[in-house]
Amino acid sequence: MWLTVFECDAATGTTCGRCRRLNIPCVGSGQQRYKFQDEGQKLALRNKPGHSSRSTSSQSITTTRSDRQSHNVPAPVILHHPSNALDKLTISFIDNLSPSLDISIQLIGNFGGFLTYIPSRLGRNAALDTAADVLAAAYTRYRSHGCNPTSEILIKHSRALNALRKSLGDPMQATSSETLGAVMVLLICQVFMGKRVTPWMSHTVGAAQILKSRGYSGPKDDFEEILLLALRGPVVLEAFSDSRIRFTPEEWKTIAISNLDVETLDGRFMVCLGQLPQLMQRGRLALKHSTPFAGEVREIQREVAALHQSYLPILEEFRERCRNLDTKVMSKDTFTTGQKRQIHCHCARMLGFGLAIGIAFNCVLSTLSPDNTMDFLRQDNESMVDEILDLEGALAAYRPLGALMVLLTLGAAYVGTTDPQKRAKIVALGSDYQRDIDGSGCGLEGEGLEWYQKQFTLG
Length: 459
Known about the structure:
63% helix
């Protein structure tokens, strides 16, 4: 498309002939009007072999859609080649977001739909741009070579961390949607950078601090709403061990409750789950300064028990949802194979997550409660450990990315059982699943097991 300039014929007191003929206001001599013309045919002729540009240099060829159709002139085609760094980054990021990929390797289905909003927000915030650059490069590398990042990817990661620090130091950018998105993207990057998958991830603390600094007015737009859906899980897991993350029940509801899933089972689960870390933090402090049966400890125990009672129906609904999948989804022709796998993967890993939290509840109650409840809670834990081990067999079909949750559930299962054979099996499985992340095979050992034991027993 080219810009052609027209001028009025003369500056007269009356409308000039050209303006009168075109039925437009006359602006006088020397004043420029602009008209967009389709130069597609002209360019096509110019690029045709053997064609002389001189033959059309003095002609202005303007074609309309009807002209092209009547003369079989092809519509102009604009070939877009990425011409700058932002274009290249956007195209690279979009190329990795295909929803047609199997859930075992898909980004959106495993890490959150907020990723689909990222391309339209690139170019606004250096932290988000550099984080997206790392994710695109690291994920592409992961799919072909596993967790073996190149020096170039490591440099990109370092650059992204520096950009995030600068954004967090800028009052205007620190609480922006893009900075919050950059934190979440860097959390995902840790999986593909060969980092050990553990519940203690420093980026999550930063995300929680951003949420606190900006207040609790709820999401500003659709991007933030779906971003919070993905972020609340890592935040609450980090809160189990890091006292810097403290939310009151009302604050947590503002973060956890979303219009997208407020009435859903997963939404109710997150609202309930978000209240447990604060009670655990209070329990640790009370046990340090009181005997197990002091008044403050008993009050916390009552609150945990009440929350546990509200949680049990949610856990049972998770079980029921998985039991009904065969009749409601898997046997239906209305779902594609890919959709069936994605639904089954989601339901199975949410049940595994729910069982892990059920074990955490029982361990906390065992620590805070009188001895006469211990046997029942231990038996319940052993039963949930068996369920987790059964689920592992189902989730193995979605390795590597679709089964990341298995490492968390195995850690909880190790604490929930005293059976040496079960513990040996859990450790072996944990090492196997860890290879999907960093290739080391060093899974639920040492520091990892100590973390689960310490957090679940209020150590």
